Structures are given as C-alpha cells and as structure tokens.
Amino acid sequence: MPNILSAIKSSLKSISFFLLIILLGGCSTSRKISKPLDEIFKESPVFRQGFAGFIVIDPKANKTLYSHNADKYFTPASNTKLFSFFTGLKILGDSIAALQYQLQNDTLYFQATGDPSFLNQNLPDSRVFEFLKNKGEQLAYVTPSYTEKHQGPGWAWDDYNAYYSAERTAFPIYGNMVTFDFKENKESPVVSPEIFKDSLVNEKDSLGSSRIRRDIAKNSFKFSNQNMEADFQQAVPFKYSPEMLVELLKDTLERPVHLVKHSEINLDLDHTLYSIPSDSLYKRMLKVSDNFIAEQILLMAANKIADTLKSDIAIDYMKENYLKDLPDEPMWYDGSGLSRYNLFTPRSMVKLLQKIKADVPREKLLDMLPSGGHSGTIKNYYKAAEPYVFAKTGTLKNNHSLSGYLKTKSGKLLIFSFMNSNYTVPTAVLKAEMEKVLLQLRDNY
Questions:
Q1: What gap in Å lies between CA 204 and CA 178, rounded to an integer?
Q2: Are the CB atoms for 66 and 445 separated by under 8 Å?
Q3: CA 195 to CA 354: how far, in whole Å?
Q4: Crossing angle of the two packed helices 311-321 and 81-91, in degrees rounded to 10
Q5: What's the confidence (pLDDT) of residue 141?
Q6: Which domains, ranges and CATH numbers included, belong to the chain?
Q7: Each residue of 48-86: pLDDT tens digit?
Q8: Which residue among 29, 64, 199, 421 is buried most deeply as judged by most CB within 10 Å?
C-alpha cells in the first residue's frame, strides 16, 4: 500500500508539473503578445489622438488573446455588411428569389422581391430577362403594397449623385444606375441605358469633381466635359419610380409592360422565379463593398419573412432570432453601413464573425472576403507574399474599421475586429499603425 500511495503522489506531481509548464507557456505567449500591443496603443500618436477599439480571439482555444476598448461602441461603416451577409445566410437560401408571379387568362402578373441582379453588369446573368422577354402572355408589373424609402436612415443627403448611393427599390434594373462613358476627344458621353440620353444637358460651367450631376429630384443630368484628353466613365444613380421602371422594361424587353397597383388585383402571386446563386451576391458585396447589394439583401430577407420590403423587418428578425447572444446589442439601421446611426462594439463584431465561420466552410469564406495585398478593398494594404488578413473594411469620414480573420505563421486562424473613430490623420496613416498590430499577431502567435 505505501508503494501504491507513493506512486500516486509521484504521478500527481508529474501531472502538476506538466500543467504548470503548459500554464506558464500560455502566460508566456500572452505576455509576448500583450506587451508590444500595449506599447503600440499607449505610445502611438495616431491611436492616442483618436479612439481605437480592438479585440482578437483564438476560436479553437476559445480564448481572448487581447482586448482594448472592445466593449465600446463605434461607427462601423461598411462593417455593417457583415450583418447583411449573415442575414442572407440565414434567410435567403442558396438561390435568389427574383419574381413572384401568376398567370391569369392572357396576362402574366409579376411582382419583384428586391433582387438586384436584373441587367446588373456586376453580377451573373439573371434568368429574369429571358423569362419576361419570351413569355407569350401580356406583362403586368404589380407594384408592392409597401416598400422602403429610397434612401436609408442616417444617409448623407448630398451623396445622392454618388455611385455608392443607388436607391433601394423593389425591382432594381441596371443596378439602378446610369453609366456615362466619355471617349477621348468626344464632348458628349455615351449613355447607358440609352433611354436617359434625352435627359442630358450640356453645362458649360464646371460641376466640381463630377463630370455628371443629376438634379436631386428628377432624372435630368448636367454634364461638363472640359477635359477630353482621355476616356472617363461615371455611374450616377437614377431617380426611381414604378413608372420609370416600366418605361425601362418596355425599352429593354422591346414589348409592352403594364403597371398595376397591388390593390387593383385579387390574385395570389404564388409562383417563384429564381435568378442567380446567393453566393455571387455575397462575394461581390464583400470584395468591393457594394452598398446597393447590401441594402437589397435586407429587402429580400424582409420580403421572405413578411412579404414586405422593409429593412427593419429583417433587422428585428435577426436580432430576435440569431443575434440575442451578442455581448452588446447592435444599433443597426441599414444594410450597407452608409448610416451614421449604426453603432457596434468590436467584441460583438467578433462574435458575429464566429457565427459566420460556423456557417461557411473556411476556404470558401476566406475567398469571399478581401485579402490583404491581393484582392478587394485591401488589395493595396497589409501586403505579404502569402495573404494573412481576410477582412471587411468600413470607412466613413473620421471612422475606419477592419473586421475578419487573420492567419498566423504557426497556422492558426484568429478572429479580430479593429474599430477607429474620431481620428484626424489620413486613413492611410491609420492603416499603417493597424498593420503593426496585425503583424505582431501574425508573427508571434
């Protein structure tokens, strides 16, 4: 018996020793990371003059490696698109529902769902064009009973002329944009869709930074082409209405299209036409930060939930059913992040990224996101021979965020969120400081 007790004591000592070694090794790694990061946040004049929040976790070890102001709220800008992405994953399915329709007598009645792919040059060809073009019946577009306002809450009103502020609508067409192609030594641009050509007015005075400026209330486009020495292209959102849509459909399909109010028919539009794979929307939205697609994802989700194209429906549903366990309640108001009402914390962003990672295979997910030095919105930043940052950017004036996944040299995949507000240095200078933090993690964990 004494020998057995002695052996047990010896084993317990060995186990304790090895546990101590593991613990000390973990503490050593934490210190190796924490000390230089503490110094960067404390001593960097860039971070000191603004307000920075950062958190990084090792999801496999279920461990927070470092945290700095991670419980504070920041303006996320286009980091909001990660919420829209998660919404699509949970609600929209593998393919996008484009039209709801029904045949009655000699008429095809159809209603839109918010699908942004119809004649959108940045997305795969939609099935909608051939479907409407080749149907033998008369076409009747049914306006939805309710849809969202064209601009989102908290958007800057004077961005209406910018490509990134296309209007939110039930039935997008051409991405809700007019494209103007200025050719070398040609004064007037080529207009697409051509139907807007007659809305073009030559303005002799300069229009500032734009060659094209639309009237805020209507589809009247002034242009000033004082520099004709090179080709130039500008895309401008057009002013949307159901009547405008029908005119565009007639012009594009080369056949009559009638406009019918939802209240004028007593008909269930219970057939669905699907257009493109959902993944093609997500990849475009995440890679180049496409605001228009992000907004339409929320409208499509709301339509699927409640047959109503209203973003708040999708947001409230997601918060209630899939996001209740976030550390801090998201102040979430739109799909794109154009709204300055949005407020998220870094630790909630990381929790969201964990949820996304659980739903999407690793390599597919990393391929969808911009990668440092190689693709998307961070192609010119965080450069390395092998990409190590796969993340969504978000930028509004004096606000910049980066949230996503980081590959370490040891092969681990970390999840991080880096959020900044109220800085006054150029954003490129801020990114250089952020890179110091990310490199510390890549090289030392």
A1: 21
A2: no
A3: 47
A4: 80
A5: 98
A6: 33-86+299-444 (3.40.710.10), 103-276 (no CATH)
A7: 999 999 999 999 999 999 999 999 999 999 999 999 999
A8: 421
> Would you state the structure tokens that stand for residue 96, as one six-digit string?
């996008």
Helix/strand/coil for 406: strand
The helix-helix angle for 278-288 and 291-306 (nearest 10°) equals 140
Q: Report the distance separating Cα 314 and Cα 411, nearest Å.
A: 37
- The angle at the Cα of 84, spanning 413 to 269, to the nearest 5 degrees, equals 135
Residue keyed to tokens 């709301």: 302
Q: Compute the distance between CA of residue 232 and CA of residue 230 in angstroms, rounded to an integer.
A: 6
The CA radius of gyration of the chain, in Å to the nearest whole number, is 26
Average pLDDT estimate for 4-33 = 53
Residue with tokens 């461990």: 63
- Is residue 139 within 8 A of residue 258, CB to CB? The reply is yes
Predicted model pTM: 0.91
Q: Write out the E strands in 190-325.
A: 190-192, 200-202, 212-214, 221-223, 232-237, 257-260, 271-277
Q: How far is CA 370 from the centre of its chain?
A: 11
The vertex-229 CA angle with 228 and 235, nearest 5°, equals 60
Q: What does the pLDDT look like over 122-146, one tens digit per residue?
A: 999 999 999 999 999 999 999 997 8
- Between 443 and 226, the higher pLDDT residue: 443
Per-residue tokens: 129: 């064009």
How many angstroms separate the CA atoms of 38 and 34, rounded? 6
